[in-house]
Amino acid sequence: MPVLERFFPAAEPGRRRRAGDEAMPFPMGSLPGYQQGTLAWDLPEMIKMVKLVWKSKGELRGAKHRGVLESEDALGGSAGDARVRGQTGVVSERRGSYPFIDFRLLNNSALSGEVGTKKKVKRLLSFQRYFHASRLLRGIVPQASLYLLDEDYLGQARHMLSKVGMWDFDIFLFDRLTNGNSLVTLLCHLFNVHGLIHHFQLDMVTLHRFFVMVQDDYHSQNPYHNAVHAADVTQAMHCYLREPKLANFLTPSDIMLGLLAAAAHDVDHPGVNQPFLIKTKHHLASLYQNVSVLENHHWRSTIGMLRESRLLAHLPKEVTQDIEQQLGSLILATDINRQNEFLIRLKSHLDNQDLRLEDAQDRHFMLQIALKCADICNPCRVWDLSKQWSERVCEEFYRQGDLEQKFELEISPLCNQQKDTVPSIQIGFMTYIVEPLFERWAQFTGNTPLSENMLNHLRRNKAKWRSLLHRQHSSSRSNDHSGQVTGSQEQTLNEEETP
């Protein structure tokens, strides 16, 4: 953080940045209609501006970026290593190096008898890798459509964005209104309202291109770890960044790092957990030596996209290096295996009352805590949203369990659909993971209305899951002699509890 503050004038502690404050002393890239004093544009104007220059800049920038990446690969990449070492020294992953494995294709093929041996499975995965890499690594990147909405939908999405700081924000509705582009639209809006575009002199076309790259590297096949989850975490992070105890001390650099980390914290998630990657000897597990495998992959993939898009190319070398390192620190903090480590440290700070948010290190630690809260905040949402997220994450668990059973692997905890029910999984998650963290977060914020609202939702949702679990057990006992509970009966039980 000290490196960033040397180049970007940070706001004084306790004072918010005003429109008249001096911007960073770096030249602005060519941008039609840009005025030095303008801090914010409306979303339609931003989209219109991107549309006007997209075609004219797209091909030229693409050729230039590919040439730069090819030279970096030649200098830093070793044989068999899909990572890229840039001038900043942080090892990143090249986009498309580790393509998403479509497990549904494996399942369908296995059912049809096409995949019956390990050799055939390996051959199929190799084909998928070649097919994906042959397009991306040769520079033939699919053109992302610039999502065009009719006026009605655009108006509804804009109305929702005016309430993006509300805790009952419906990210599923917003994703539909933006035609599946919730993450890109949300990030453009938040970077605009926080004044980050002006402060860091970011080129709008390059910024939009980077956001599209991040969104596209999430996999919609995943029921839970997809771009909608990333948008949900980003919206929650925005709410936490506005908490007075934290907001009064945050610099523009803190805000940008928090939003970027929230948006990219699960990028290119394969839909399976770390134990699965380790026991199947996945190349990512070997690459990161079985330590924070997915989180390291998310971080290095994000660095790769930052370099490919050249979003921060106009900044000094030490600034970009500091940004990359701090992004890694934030994303690695989301590793659930490190939960106790952060919880113990937070408890110690709160008990000793020695948090000094004027200090960059303490601010960064609280950004890590905020991101951890945002990542697991689903049980603290209103019941309708919380229930959807709970069912989605359990569906992803069950898919992994089915895959493990198909290939005669030990079924991971929480992934056995016959034994691990949605209510039991959620009650355990809330009790041992969510409650301890959010109680400490409320203690830090001083029990603000948002913190109290989240804890109230958490308690109510936990009570609903307990009621559902009790009714499932009662129904199961009553059906011991007449057969198991059918899917329709279980669905009825769930729907009766929905407010």
In DSSP terms (H or I, runs of 4 or more residues), the helix count works out at: 22
Gyration radius, to the nearest Å?
A: 23 Å
State the oligomer.
Answer: single chain
Computed structural class: mainly alpha
Instruction: State the order of secondary-structure elements, H for helix, E for strand.
Output: HHEEHHHHHHHHHHHHHHHHHHHH
What does this structure look like?
With 499 residues, this protein is an all-alpha fold. The protein contains 22 helices and two strands. It has a two-stranded antiparallel ribbon. Helix 7 runs antiparallel to helix 9, helix 7 packs parallel to helix 10 and helix 10 packs across helix 18. It is globular and about 65 Å long.
Question: What order do the helices and strands come in, and which of them pair?
Answer:
Layout: H1 2-7, H2 43-76, E1 83-85, E2 91-93, H3 103-111, H4 118-136, H5 151-161, H6 171-177, H7 182-193, H8 196-199, H9 204-216, H10 227-241, H11 244-247, H12 252-264, H13 274-279, H14 283-287, H15 293-309, H16 317-332, H17 339-352, H18 360-375, H19 383-406, H20 422-445, H21 449-478, H22 487-496
Antiparallel strand pairs: 1-2
Helix pairs in contact: 7-9, 7-10, 9-15, 10-12, 10-18, 12-16, 12-18, 15-16, 16-18, 17-20, 20-21
